């Protein structure tokens, strides 16, 4: 009887799976830590290697049922240009691996940046994602995740809300924020405060559910024309 109950529970959790989230962003922005925060588990292991591109990195997948929703997070697309062509190869390689890892379709692309970063190259990184994954998905289903929320809170002496802070920023952050449709969530991946952890997850899920139009991003939507995408990306990177 206990074995039957266990199998029934696992089967029920499988059917509850609804949300697929794809993590992307510059190297060291906190993608893996954000994935762990979303799933309230230490599933993802950062694979940062500053000396070489992340071509050998593999996509990581985590799943958990939270708030009556099955959430799958795929972590893997690093965007840091050590050398234009080689870095594009890495981004394309990792994107393909991520898409292959999860066959049930992605609801949203989470573009992860650090609050302490400069955002100088993120607009181009974002455009590279549009070339690789397709402009429709990236433009309409992206959410900006700003990590190091603890630093934001400690430096926020005027007690400005995060939404107001985002709206008040100038370029280059403003350009990235607008590219994400004005959708952004502050994440503190270091907090031990249970209420704060739950608050940031619920804020993210609210945005994901709010922009749900029944469309997901599947493997069939991925642009396998690597040479064509590479040419477009090379042209993009040459622009100032």
TrEMBL record:
UniProt entry keywords in alphabetical sequence: GTP-binding, Nucleotide-binding
Keyword Repeat in record: no
GO terms, molecular function: GTP binding
Database matches in Pfam families: AIG1 (PF04548)
AIG1-type G domain segment(s): 16-227
InterPro entries xrefs: G_AIG1, GIMA/IAN/Toc, P-loop_NTPase
Family: Belongs to the TRAFAC class TrmE-Era-EngA-EngB-Septin-like GTPase superfamily. AIG1/Toc34/Toc159-like paraseptin GTPase family. IAN subfamily.
Record's protein name: AIG1-type G domain-containing protein
Native source species: Biomphalaria glabrata (Bloodfluke planorb)
Gene: 106072106
